[in-house]
Hints:
The protein is α+β, with helices and mostly antiparallel strands. 31% of the residues lie in helices and 21% in strands.
Amino acid sequence: MTDDADTRSAEEIVAGEWRFLLDGGHDLIDTETVRAAHARPRLRQLFPLVSHGVLYFSGCTGMPAAHTGGQVHPRGADGRYRVAGPKGVGTLGRTETLYEAFALVAGNLPEECGPAVLGGAGHV
């Protein structure tokens, strides 16, 4: 890690990760999904993570992640998106569009959920 990286704020790190994903820098998720999530201001302040085509969010910039909000899974056999809770537990609902799915995720964030902080889950 460089000195430059050590001085970046959580906000800068979060914004950089969003830019990377919006520019198609991750081959495990499509940019349409990332754009739909990024359209939600409350989600945009969280650190975005990707695993197996699923976008999820952390309240911190490091590892271990502090999972918050829900996850939007790719279209299922019924043609809808499944919105799961944090860490994929439970189902918050099923939606027709990605924008509806991420609205559901944002609407289920805890009230006290604020911008991501530096460090791992122990810092949240």
